[in-house]
């Protein structure tokens, strides 16, 4: 997130549209959250909430500049049949939460250390009724869980070990002994900031090494150019809030 390097807004929009079209071409339904003046970070839609089986745990952003985004996300869910719970503790939605419905009967992985308050993990467990595993992030380059770990399908993950504390690494090794292991070059290319439907793994175009790793694990990588969104600190996953009705 180098503020001295300008973003090309027209190109950013073109790349966002490419991501949306890629998802629809793969057969997914895409809802678009309307932009609001003064909230440029709304493009990172993953941060506004976290949903599991029709229940939504709303975000409470750490930085006041993004606070109004949580309200916009709440209004979106209010228009449907969702059971919405507003977060009391600081949390940044799917930025720091991942759900694996097929792992251990349904497991939530949750990150803390830079943005999300650890107390939000217990709060999410009460709201969503699923066990939450707390993982401590220790490298400021990977400030959200979704920069260091991703679900590849209902049971399997990929992650960069050194983004986590030694104890959290032991937990991940125990829970996911067959995980796809990323290296620092993968993580710095935002290769772990991906979206997977269990078959297709959507990555940014710089994530060539990770693409080969997921291909070897049996998935089909799909590349999308997101250079301008990466300038703001996010890639594929940051721009997508996954809905789990």
Automatic annotation (TrEMBL):
Keywords: Hydrolase. GO terms for molecular function: hydrolase activity. Pfam families: DDAH_eukar. This is N-dimethylarginine dimethylaminohydrolase. It comes from Actinoplanes digitatis.
């Amino acid at each position: 997130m180098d503020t001295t390097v300008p973003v090309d807004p027209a190109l950013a929009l073109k790349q966002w549209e490419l991501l949306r079209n890629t998802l629809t071409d793969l057969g997914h339904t895409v809802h678009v959250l309307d932009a609001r003046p003064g909230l440029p970070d709304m493009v990172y839609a993953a941060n506004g909430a976290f949903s599991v089986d029709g229940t939504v745990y709303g975000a409470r952003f750490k930085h006041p500049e993004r606070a109004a985004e949580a309200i916009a996300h709440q209004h979106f869910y209010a228009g449907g049949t969702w059971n919405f719970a507003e977060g009391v503790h600081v949390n940044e939605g799917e930025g720091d939460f991942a759900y694996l419905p097929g792992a251990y009967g349904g497991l939530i992985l949750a990150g803390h250390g830079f943005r999300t308050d650890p107390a939000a993990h217990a709060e999410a467990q009460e709201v969503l009724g699923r066990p939450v595993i707390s993982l401590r992030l220790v490298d400021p380059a990977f400030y959200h869980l979704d920069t260091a770990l991703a679900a590849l399908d209902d049971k399997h993950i990929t992650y960069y070990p050194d983004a986590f504390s030694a104890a959290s690494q032991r937990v991940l090794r125990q829970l996911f002994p067959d995980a796809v292991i990323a290296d620092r070059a993968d993580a710095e290319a935002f290769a772990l900031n991906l979206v997977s439907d269990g078959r297709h793994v959507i990555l940014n175009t710089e994530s060539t090494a990770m693409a080969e790793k997921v291909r070897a694990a049996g998935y089909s990588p799909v590349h999308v150019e997101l250079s301008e969104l990466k300038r703001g600190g996010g890639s594929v996953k940051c721009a997508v809030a996954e809905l789990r009705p």
